[in-house]
Amino acid sequence: MITGENGTSTQPSFHELMERRKAGRRRFPWVFWALLGPGVLAAIANNDAGGVIAYAVTGAQFGIGLFVPLVICLAPLEFTIQEMSMRLGAATGLGFARVARQRYGAFWGYYHISTLAFENLLTLITEFIGMTAGLVILGFPMWVAALLCLLLVIAFALLTGYWTKERIALLFGSLNVVFLVAAWLTHPSMAAIGHAFAAWNVPQAMKAGLTLYIIATIGNAIAPWMIFFQESGTVDKGVTSEEIRFSRIDTAIGCTMQVVVAAGVIIFGASLFGYVKDISNAGPAEIISSLDHVAGRLPAILFGMGLFNAGFLASITVSLSSSWSIAELFGWSKSLNDKISEAPTFYAIYIGSLVIAAAVILIPGLPLNFIAIVTQIIGGIMMTPLLIFLVLMTSDKELMGEHRTGLFGRTWSWAMAAALVGFTIVTLWHTFSGFFS
Question: Where are the domains of the chain?
Answer without folding.
Answer: 36-377
